[in-house]
Amino acid sequence: MELKTAELQPKIQVKKSRKLSLKHRRNILRWGVSYTLLTILAVVTIMPFLWTVSTSLKGQNETIFSYPPNFTPENFTFENFVTVWNTLNLPLYLWNSVVLSFWGVILPLFFCSLAAFPLARMNFKGKNLVFMIILATMMIPGEVTMIPVYLTISKLGLIGTYSGVILPGVVSAFAIFLMRQAFISIPKELDESAIIDGANAWQIWWHILLPMVKPMLATLAILKFIGAWNNFLWPLLILEDSSMYPLTVGLYELKGTFVSNTRLIAAGALIALIPILIVFIAFQSYFIKSAYSSAVKG
Amino acid sequence: MYKARTAWLFLIPTGVLLLTFSIIPAVAALGLSFTNYNVFQPIEWVGIENFSRAFSDDDFWNALWNTFYYWILVTPALIVIPVFLAILVNQQLMGIKVYRLIFYFPALVSVVVTAILWTWMFKSDGLFNAALHSIGINPVDWLTDKFTAMPSLAIVTVWQGLGYYMLFYLAGLQSVSKDLYEAAELDGAGFWAKHIYITFPSLKPIIFFVTVVSTMSAFKEFTLMLTMTAGGPIGSTTTLVYMIFEKAFTDLEMGYASAVSTILFVIILILTLINKRALDTTQQ
């Protein structure tokens, strides 16, 4: 066996050196094709955004829909942003979205990691049954239970309140599952020594385990933030007073009332996008991680 | 180590919420399907009347057809195109991360903003028609023609989903060992051979995952229809969930709407089981 490889060695060496220049040429071709494709696709992807940005910066007398389409504003102005900010309750909608998103992140993180703790680290009768029931709820689409959930919220007297908007989305089987996975990977000895030191279960969960699963909490927080910031259906169904609307519902109403003023709506839509863009750029690596944990492990 | 009582104490708060907003509503949705509940009158048991009404209701069949039509338009595209997108962004190229971020970003845009952006793209004098004009084709009434309305919405969904599913495939690609590709290259395998014999087989679990997720979300979609076409023109974009939404919250026919929800749930359940069967048989 060894003899054979020794014999082959020089031949491979020769082949490699000739292949290198070929490989080099192939690489350049591959880069060229890749960058061309990537750039075309990227431009197509951001086209609607580009168009909206250009529209929001156009002056009152400029044509928006024209042939050929004009992407560079001639009377460059920030006036539309100022107008939409001052006249359309936008700061209020923004603030409402912030409040809803805050609770829409904090409550799910708290409740889901609370339930994940015993499921990951305790032994008790019925544990597997409970976990299976939780997983089974993943099969129930929210759209199917929309009507009974609405009726429940109405029976609880929560129509028109933020509690009514937030509560249906607090617990999700997927979040419990992810937190359970994170807790399971911590060594069991940690709990044992903490108990010997006199810590109770709550203290172990709050002071020892939670700080150790921060990366998973962060991933979940970002997913929940995107969901809460973009939540449209429940605020639309539950809220009655327009002064309580989040940005999504506010924009939806705006779209109806200011149908003719494309510039203002463009400015409003962009303002709604900015927080998402900031969170996305700041925490980009967590998005890759969340995709990984749900597709490969899950 | 821990007492059983402690475990239950930790489970109760979450359990109460799960019961209130998921498990009991699921049972209640089934129960309501057999009643004539309409908010104003006392609730009354009507047996299978709602179901027989649905099966003889043209609106129901139209919504069912539209739902399948939308699914067929979006799901194959969302399973296949992101694979190639993922292969493209899985290369070691300068600035590749920026491209990944650009492709993924549409997935994070709320449905309302998406609807605003794309309604303009599809306007009679919008970008799409400008592009058609430049190659000498007459303008199309994208969202206001009953034949093009649903395909237009499908374009929006694909635009929004490509980067999202790309990320799953990318995660899958990065767990494929590089040695396999190098060995294949030494054996003289080209682009297609490498991907047909290495990439696609190792992505199989993810392809199934994407199939399930994109199918589920296609069958549940309705906010895009609500914000872009309001189910029209002439009901051509009214999906099952849109019909449920309208019947329940506009016509207040909660009983009938619940029956349609139950039918939708059964369809989703069947599709999930088929998918699971397919996954199990291929993994054996």
Your description of this structure?
The complex is a heterodimer of chains A (298) and B (284). Chain A is mainly alpha-helical and 298 residues long. Chain A starts with a helix and ends with a helix. Chain A folds into two domains: 1-77, no CATH class; 89-297, MetI-like (MetI-like fold), CATH 1.10.3720. Chain A is built from 14 helices and no strands. In chain A, helix 2 crosses helix 13 (262-282) and helix 12 packs antiparallel against helix 13. Chain B has helices at 4-32, 49-55, 58-89, 96-104, 111-122, 127-134, 149-174, 178-186, 191-220, 223-228, 240-249, 254-283. Chain B is globular. Classes of the chains: A mainly alpha (298), B mainly alpha (284). Chains A and B meet through helix 1, helix 3, helix 4, helix 5 and helix 8 of A and helix 1, helix 3, helix 4, helix 5 and helix 6 of B.
Alpha-beta content class of chain A: mainly alpha
Overall shape of chain B: globular
CATH topology of the largest domain in chain A: MetI-like fold
- How many distinct beta strands of chain B? 0
Whole-angstrom Rg of chain A: 27 Å
Enter the CATH topology name of chain B. MetI-like fold
| Full CATH superfamily name of chain B | MetI-like
Terminal-residue CA separation of chain B:
39 Å
Major sheet characteristics of chain B: none
Number of domains of chain A: 2
Largest interface, C-beta within 8 A: A-B, 92 and 91 residues
Q: Secondary-structure element sequence of chain B?
A: HHHHHHHHHHHH
Q: In total, how many domains does the architecture of chain B comprise?
A: 1
Give the full name of the CATH homologous superfamily of the largest domain in chain A: MetI-like
What is the level 1 CATH name of chain B?
Mainly Alpha
